[in-house]
User: Which sequence fits this backbone?
């Protein structure tokens, strides 16, 4: 395959944290984030994603996304939203195998004249105990440079998981 | 050096079951499998199964999967199963020409972690002679905590040829 993945930052959660922020986006290259085994302390919460500026996650209402939710148990769903205060990742809970695994490609994060875009490829076990995931994309509609990306739950903490940021070169 | 490390590659021809063992290990939590060449000479569809650390292909009904099928010649299709003996539609189509082919990229999460299910996602593109282009965006899981060390591509007919490359995604702590 073309190109290489060079690790920029990683964080393995072994005790509960409110959020995980990966920093170090400092070029106009494409970046990729991989997450594996992400779990939450609270049941039936949203795993959310935000961009960061100077390492602080942005909580403004400038997040738009369009995802197709794939489910093993029932009809697929379309999720299209504008002006949210986060990008929705997946509904997760506290049952043993409920978890979030994902791949995201990051575009234009370092460019202060462009919006920041990501793609979403997500698979896990959700709060209905079924295999589900999302495929789609998202944008943060602010012309600013973002040096980081972060993950958090709608309530409670992230209790486990590995989050790694790579530069695609 | 890239953190995406080529572990090995494999190939086969004129077979209905393609197994690659000893790919997954404790060295990585995330793997990428690329199907770099695939041609079929018979009518079939092919699914993916995992191989446990004893070398056995797991064919129990512990797989769940969901696939959005994107087609140039018809409406898109939602396919899914909560209990299946494989993760369907990795390769293959209903046409028999050697020109019918597949390219695919598969990601596998936590295969050797014996406290976690093994998750995967894939996307592929297929050319179906007489019909057109069809692709998949898909997810799947093996709902057991067995330690998984390899994979199998299983078909209902004979695969003409197949080549795969296997990568591990390294995390430097």
Assistant:
């Amino acid at each position: 395959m073309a190109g290489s993945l060079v690790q920029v930052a990683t964080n393995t959660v072994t005790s509960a944290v409110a959020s995980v922020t990966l920093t170090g986006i400092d070029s106009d290259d494409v970046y990729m984030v991989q997450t594996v085994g992400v779990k939450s302390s609270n049941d039936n919460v949203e795993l959310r994603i935000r961009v960061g500026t100077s390492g602080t996650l942005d909580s403004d209402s400038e997040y738009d996304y369009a995802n197709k939710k794939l489910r093993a148990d029932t009809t697929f769903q379309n999720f299209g939203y504008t002006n949210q205060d986060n990008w929705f990742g997946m509904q997760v809970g506290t049952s043993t195998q409920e978890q979030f695994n994902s791949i995201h490609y990051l575009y234009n994060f370092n460019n202060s004249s462009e919006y920041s875009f990501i793609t979403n490829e997500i698979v896990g076990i959700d709060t209905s105990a079924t295999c589900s995931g999302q495929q789609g994309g998202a944008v943060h509609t602010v012309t600013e440079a973002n040096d980081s990306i972060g993950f958090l739950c709608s309530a409670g903490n992230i209790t486990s998981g590995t989050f790694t940021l790579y530069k695609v070169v | 050096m890239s953190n995406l490390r080529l572990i090995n590659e494999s190939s086969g021809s004129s077979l209905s079951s393609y197994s690659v063992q000893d790919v997954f290990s404790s060295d990585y939590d995330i793997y990428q499998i690329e199907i770099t060449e695939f041609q079929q000479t018979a009518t079939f569809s092919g699914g993916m199964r995992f191989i446990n650390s004893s070398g056995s292909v797991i064919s129990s009904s512990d797989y769940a999967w969901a696939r959005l099928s994107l087609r140039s010649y018809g409406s898109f299709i939602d396919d899914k199963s909560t209990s299946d003996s494989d993760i369907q539609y990795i390769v293959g189509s209903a046409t028999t020409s050697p020109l019918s082919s597949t390219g695919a990229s598969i990601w596998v999460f936590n295969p050797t972690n014996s406290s976690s299910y093994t998750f995967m996602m894939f996307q592929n593109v297929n050319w179906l002679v007489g019909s057109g282009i069809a692709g998949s965006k898909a997810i799947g899981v093996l709902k057991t905590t067995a330690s998984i060390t390899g994979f199998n591509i299983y078909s209902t007919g004979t695969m003409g040829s197949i080549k795969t490359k296997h990568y591990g995604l390294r995390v430097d702590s």
Chain B has a mean pLDDT of 90.
